[in-house]
Amino acid sequence: MFKTLRSDIQAVLDRDPAATGAFEVLCCYPGFRAVRMHRRAHYCHTHGMKLLARIISEWCRFRTGVDIHPAATIGKRLFIDHGLGVVIGETAVIGDDVTLYQGATLGGTGKDVGKRHPTIGDHVTIAAGASVLGPLNVGRHAKIGAGAVVLRDVPPFSTVVGVPGHVVRLYGCKVPCDHVGQCSDDCECKDTERCVKYMSDMSGEEGVDLDQVHLPDPVEQQLEALMKRVEALESKNNTDSDVN
Q1: Please, which residues have CB within 8 angstroms of residue 102's CB and are 6 or more apart in sequence?
Q2: Higher pLDDT residue, 131 or 211?
Q3: How far apart are CA 155 and CA 153, in angstroms?
Q4: Is the peptide bond preceding residue 156 cis, with omega within 30 degrees of 0?
Q5: How far apart are CA 216 and CA 194, in angstroms?
Q6: Which of 56, 74, 83, 142 is the most buried (most CB within 10 A)?
Q7: What is the pLDDT of residues 38-88, one digit of tens each?
Q8: Does the pLDDT at position 112 exceed 80?
Q9: Residue-wise DSSP of 124-182
Q10: Which of 50-59, 100-109, 192-201 has the least mean pLDDT?
Q11: Terminal Cα-to-Cα distance of the chain (whole angstroms)
């Protein structure tokens, strides 16, 4: 129990530069308190005290603004930053070293039965306001951009943005890419921290990626591709005109 408590505190200290010490985390971080209260509620739920578990979870929502069903399974070192508006559904499963920002939702679509909430792999970052809905899988080291709505499985080492969410980076490469997962000397991500060869060996806190700024814009990418196509056609047309 104390080992888990220490690791939960350390996760906050490692990922939030505003945290100045363990005592501050204990007293002033609603996301940390929500995780600790959920661990107690989950223990009660798995030991037949389901009403008590729900009472604890509702008190947690009232105190912290974080709504976690006591049946949800949460791994080690979950960090919920700010916390307000975070929702984690009943059958959600969260791996180790996951980071959730305010307003993130791990919910259902309203029409599934049984397993109806997402399964989140290790070292996943879900940015502010993102919604991951349904019994889908989010692979390890994936990153969900702010405001994205994810409705289908997310591969490992990918970045998802947009509504509905779609993959714009995979293994550090912009999508589409002919060398995804097999970086060559010509890849822009070669020898950088985004390269899968660099990331695949990371574990624990080292594998946490909190960068929410350098996310590709899929609309911009499509416009760039269209402009290149237009320029190529114009160049070809000018060449043909000169020949004639």
Answers
A1: 81, 82, 83, 84, 85, 86, 128, 129
A2: 131
A3: 7
A4: no
A5: 13
A6: 142
A7: 999 999 999 999 999 999 999 999 999 999 999 999 999 999 998 889 999
A8: no
A9: -EE-TT-EEESS-EE-TT-EE-TT-EE-S-B-TTEEEETTTTEEEEETTEESS-TTTTS
A10: 192-201
A11: 82
CA separation for the pair 88, 218 (Å, rounded):
28
What does DSSP say about strands 173-174 and 166-170: parallel, antiparallel, or unpaired? antiparallel
- Is pLDDT at 22 greater than 80 in this prediction? yes
Structural domains of the chain, ranges and CATH numbers in brackets = 1-67 (1.10.3130.10), 89-228 (2.160.10.10)
CA distance 168 to 23: 40
pTM: 0.75
Mean pLDDT highest for which of 159-168, 175-184, 199-208? 159-168
Yes or no: say if 146 and 129 are a contact pair by the CB < 8 Å rule: yes
Mean pLDDT, all residues of the chain: 82
How far is it, in rounded angstroms, from Cα 61 to Cα 110?
Answer: 21
Tokens of 170: 């995979």
Helix spans in the chain (H): 2-15, 22-28, 30-46, 50-64, 196-199, 218-243
Residues 6 or more apart whose Cβ sits within 8 Å of residue 167: 154, 155, 158, 159, 160, 175
Q: Are the C-beta atoms of residues 59 and 37 closer than 8 Å to each other?
A: yes
